[in-house]
Design goal:
Layout (H helix, E strand, L loop, with lengths): L1 E4 L6 E4 L7 H20 L5 H8 L3 H9 L13 E2 L6 E2 L6 H16 L13 H13 L1
Antiparallel strand pairs: 1-2, 3-4
Helix pairs in contact: 4-5
The structure holds zinc ion (2 copies).
Length: about 140
């Protein structure tokens, strides 16, 4: 059994897997997520600062949820995140439409070359590949 310090509260706990956060704090973050989700449903046009203030969650955490596509915003919501490829402002996920298109195209090319992902940067994770497959299915 491995014992670690929680990154959030510093307490010692039995580490199993995932981020170095104790079950208590994980539960608190999950509770916050529900609070934020509800707040957004009731205040569709709230911006990041407001949500952060009203729900007492730091904006970094909110951005993380947006990237994970756990939080959904209406089209007129002022909340945007940067596309991880080109930096364009988008309303959710990790990449803008243009970059998703671009990635789908390079995947097509790679498939043409016998399925070798020649264009994939080395730091891409397997998760990205499944995302790309999903984009292809959408076409
Ligand atoms: Zn903790
Ligand atoms: Zn982009």
């Amino acid at each position: 059994m491995q014992v670690r310090n929680c990154k959030k509260c510093g307490c010692l706990y039995n580490y199993v897997t995932g981020p170095s956060i104790c079950p208590n704090c994980l539960q608190k973050i999950e509770d916050k997520f529900q609070t934020v989700k509800k707040y957004i449903q009731q205040h569709g046009r709230a911006d990041m600062e407001e949500i952060s203030r009203e729900c007492e969650v730091d904006t970094g955490q909110i951005q993380q949820w947006i990237r994970q596509e756990r939080l959904q915003f209406s089209d007129d919501s002022p909340i945007k995140v940067n596309c991880e490829m080109c930096g364009k402002m988008i309303s959710g996920g990790r990449f803008c439409h243009a970059c998703k298109d671009q990635m789908a195209r390079s995947l097509n090319q790679a498939m043409g070359l016998g399925g070798v992902m020649t264009e994939a940067p080395p730091d891409r994770k397997a998760r990205d590949n499944t995302n790309r497959m999903r984009f292809l299915d959408n076409r």
